[in-house]
């Protein structure tokens, strides 16, 4: 009987020690993290990202269209204004055909063609075309975008426009 009591006491002691160890570990884990200077940092809280409202979500597929205006017309100061008017008119036509005249563009990719040795010039032209489009056309007013070189095999502009749903 004395032996059973001793086993029970020994078992209770081990359980108490294990419980104490678990409580110490939980206590240490709950302490704030400090920097080398000793100032506490806030622990990162998990961010909860809510689904954006439907109207602020971009469509998964872009609307693609080509405009047969040579990018060089936008680099020539004599034809630049006429080229922009022509571009705006053709974009209005493209949007009307697709019933997108009242839509909002979210992201725009503009591709301008040009010789391979002048890819930077073509890319700069595409960027300037996008910036002008953003300033002058209500559909593109609040969009983001970027210009790229479209290759040397053609002499036109390509657009890939992601509209809001």
UniProtKB/TrEMBL annotation:
UniProt biased composition (Polar residues): 36-46
Region spans: Disordered: 34-62
Skewed-composition ranges (Basic and acidic residues): 52-62
Name of the molecule in the record: Uncharacterized protein
Phylogenetic placement of the source organism: Bacteria, Bacillati, Actinomycetota, Actinomycetes, Streptosporangiales
């Amino acid at each position: 009987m004395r032996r059973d009591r001793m086993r029970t006491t020994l078992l209770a002691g081990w359980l108490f020690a294990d419980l104490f160890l678990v409580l110490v570990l939980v206590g240490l884990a709950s302490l704030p993290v400090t920097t080398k200077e000793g100032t506490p940092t806030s622990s990162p809280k998990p961010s909860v990202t809510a689904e954006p409202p439907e109207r602020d979500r971009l469509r998964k597929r872009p609307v693609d269209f080509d405009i047969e205006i040579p990018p060089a017309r936008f680099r020539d100061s004599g034809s630049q204004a006429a080229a922009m008017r022509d571009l705006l008119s053709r974009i209005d036509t493209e949007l009307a055909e697709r019933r997108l005249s009242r839509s909002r563009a979210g992201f725009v990719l503009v591709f301008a063609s040009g010789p391979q040795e002048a890819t930077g010039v073509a890319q700069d032209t595409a960027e300037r075309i996008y910036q002008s489009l953003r300033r002058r056309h209500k559909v593109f007013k609040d969009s983001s975008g970027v210009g790229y070189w479209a290759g040397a095999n053609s002499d036109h502009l390509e657009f890939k426009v992601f509209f809001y749903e």
